[in-house]
NADH oxidase (NoxA-3) (Archaeoglobus fulgidus), 1102 residues
Amino acid sequence: MNVVVIGGGAAGLKAASRIRRKDGDASITVVEAGKYVSLGRCGLPYYVGGLVHEVDNLRETTYGAVRDEAYFKKLKNIDVLTETVATEIDRSRKTVKIVRNGSEDELNYDYLVIATGARPAKPPIEGIEAEGVVTLTSAEEAEKIIEMWEEGAEKAVVIGAGFIGLESAEALKNLDMEVTVIEMMDRVAPAMLDREMAVLVENHLREKGVNVVTSTRVEKIVSQDDKVRAVIANGKEYPADVVVVATGIKPNSELAEKAGLKIGETGAIWVDEYMRTSDESIYAGGDCVETTCLVTGKKIIAPFGDVANKQGRVIGENITGGRAVFPGVIRTAIFKVFDFTAASAGVNEQMAKEAGLDYFTVIAPSPDRAHYYPQANYIRLKLIVEKGSWRVIGAQGVGMGEVAKRIDVLSTAIQAGMTIDQLANLDLAYAPPYSPALDPVITIANVAMNKRDGLFEGINVFELKEKLEKEDIVILDVRSEEEFKTRRIESEKVIHIPILELRERLDEIPRDKEIVVVCAIGLRSFEASRILKHAGFEKVKILEGGMAFWF
Amino acid sequence: MNVVVIGGGAAGLKAASRIRRKDGDASITVVEAGKYVSLGRCGLPYYVGGLVHEVDNLRETTYGAVRDEAYFKKLKNIDVLTETVATEIDRSRKTVKIVRNGSEDELNYDYLVIATGARPAKPPIEGIEAEGVVTLTSAEEAEKIIEMWEEGAEKAVVIGAGFIGLESAEALKNLDMEVTVIEMMDRVAPAMLDREMAVLVENHLREKGVNVVTSTRVEKIVSQDDKVRAVIANGKEYPADVVVVATGIKPNSELAEKAGLKIGETGAIWVDEYMRTSDESIYAGGDCVETTCLVTGKKIIAPFGDVANKQGRVIGENITGGRAVFPGVIRTAIFKVFDFTAASAGVNEQMAKEAGLDYFTVIAPSPDRAHYYPQANYIRLKLIVEKGSWRVIGAQGVGMGEVAKRIDVLSTAIQAGMTIDQLANLDLAYAPPYSPALDPVITIANVAMNKRDGLFEGINVFELKEKLEKEDIVILDVRSEEEFKTRRIESEKVIHIPILELRERLDEIPRDKEIVVVCAIGLRSFEASRILKHAGFEKVKILEGGMAFWF
């Protein structure tokens, strides 16, 4: 059996390796246009930022062997051809035309794997081809940033505040550059986070000295002597010695399209659940294919290293006679930026609306371990819950503590179709160093049930800011004297009554006005809202998430 | 509505608080025999060890209010009676007899909540009542340990190596005591871990200077002037100024039993899924009730703080007209001991056997984040998989890295009834600081599928040790020269061929003997076993988990 794999990234090499593990005799050839195969590109920001010392670390095995051509030949008897471009697929003859060292050749296949990946989607901005504008998607670009830094680059602009943009911002800041991030949308990480969650990340970036500019479109990149000098956005000039463009990717589907393979609505290669293209001898996986969002049922592109690895395994399994399935994804994603983790799974509000889903949301900050245990940190979670089925369809988490664990649990729960009632009874691992007695996941499920069952009415920080400006409301802050002194909502509409005094001081609160109760994380305001309701107050709301979401 | 709650721990106070949140008018009285209510007893080892500075920290809210009688009265209008003992329940008259300050009284109830908790199950060891023998289950006992330490106690023996025993061992070691842990079973944490996993914890304890003695029954506690002096076990004397007994708990079900309520087969109070006892006006929750293991269907006692909190909420919900359900647990548990985390969910092998389940197991060490990322640590996971359904029914994790996250994901997957095939496609959050491209959970699911599908045959470290002694086998170590030099299996049966040379050096390996391939974590040995199989070698096995499990 002859197998040709086009693309030496995660999907292609995982497929090739899996085929070898199952079939000792197959002839397997991997064709890669670039200089390296099997490079963990997700690690490039950490290489630039100095946490990872050698680019080669990103293509090493866990036991320190560099995954180069010799490695694949010796260990797996796989022929890897680097700096080799596949130019054409002839499906009737089952051949691939390749160009290597300037000369053409042809490879025969019984099975072909297309794993051509994706390329940065550079927006049509004037000047974007200037020297000094990079994308941080290859080892070469990473080296170039370091080189510019060594030559004295001091100011950087990152265009696009998705997770690669923000990881790049941190890396550049770690090199002591002045960093500005410019994002077209109204928030950072718009494909993951809703606005009240994104604001927390933005504030953390600002605390760390990164300039964050949202709702702003880059108009022009200005060069001098063909070297980048500044970025113009909203009429303002941002000086820049380095510009990192991180505005998404475009699947490399052209070779497949030219061969007449079915291209999906997303512009990526269409595959079935066996990762097979419209030609049964040709499989495809990784960033060049589209997959299914298991929450909305829609086709999407999920350009993640973990997805590529899983798809590669499925391809290898099926080419060697198996019937493995890759069902799809729920868009789970995570990034670290300085001391913060931000993560999401399933849909955010924007995606839920676009998919026509009927939902409600709930937010809840919670300590990530027993609050008396050293290093306990508040994390902020948000759930999107489908009305009627009461299933969790989306989750977001932000904060300094153990966010990753909670998003992975919620991701698993979303994939299992769990309801908030089931979530509330999850048997999670509790001990003080790892979780409060009620894990943040259980707590937010409880909050969601309370909201569903009408035990409180919540508003978010944006709604409160608007109400504060336009309506004659009362804000009832029920925190302690000390908390109130330290940081509060500055307005004459605020009444301060510590929660332990509330039952005795109810007559200080006007009964004719809408009352919004505020505390640190939403717990005491819930308690207070119940006291007020039981005392006959009618229009009582709480600021969901409390001061932890105020900005 | 009159509600009486017997027991001021997590279940009782959660129930009481929930009732108040839903019902402003109910009269709620909580009766507690001890001095404190709402004390987070799981935190006591950290108080003894010096990580938590005040006992009161363990009964504070997240915002620093001490949960005492006044707190419950002011905030929740709940009457808390401490140092008050409930002596009798009269179900026909719906009254509870209490003794307070030496005088008797009676409380009427419409609903009664029994949350009497559990007490340490002290084994019938001669001398166990001596001064200096404690259980670390109350603030008073914790204070006593600290006092003895301040008075110069230097040597401690912990009887029982469950998680409380091990947490206590760490706390005592943190006070610079000489610590010996004595366990009757053949391993530490026997209710959670199988032997090959437990051995890793034992070795870590020894590295930290704790003396661990397993398969050993304590015969006698020796005192002098009524003060403990030593523990005798297996004929050996272990000097001790302090003895901590941590040999499990016994539910306080006597009051319920005396009232004629149904007691379950476990000796704890029987409740239905609504947490209602056999009397529909009486609910019960926490350590005094039994619950259902959702994997085996058996009744068990699950004396965990998180379970008590969840049950308390269900009770409060149902007493106020709701229909909330507590379905049961899967015995998820976790503990930290020095730099190690150990955790489990579902059944271990012993439980699976006892329940008559047909299963196979798989183990896999894996880095907890991208191996090139700083602070990456190897964690060791184990799965118990039901044959036929291929569902995961048990999971264990041990190591220095992010074990907690993986066990929580696996716990969620077990509760959702996921198969190893579904597990392999879980969409978990990947970025280098949080996970390798394939999360350890995905990796072990892949290993499990490989084992199920016959792609390798594994043996564990105990089987290999036995084979090494009794059979004419070959151990093929495929690690690098450097790894081999650093630490290896010392035997003339070992052949060392680094994996990258294996294909060229196959003729050095005898074809007539059984071959056990060994590497660092099991990955290269799997690869090597495939190469050998394809080359016609017939009797090839691999040491599952590799040298990471060798001891």
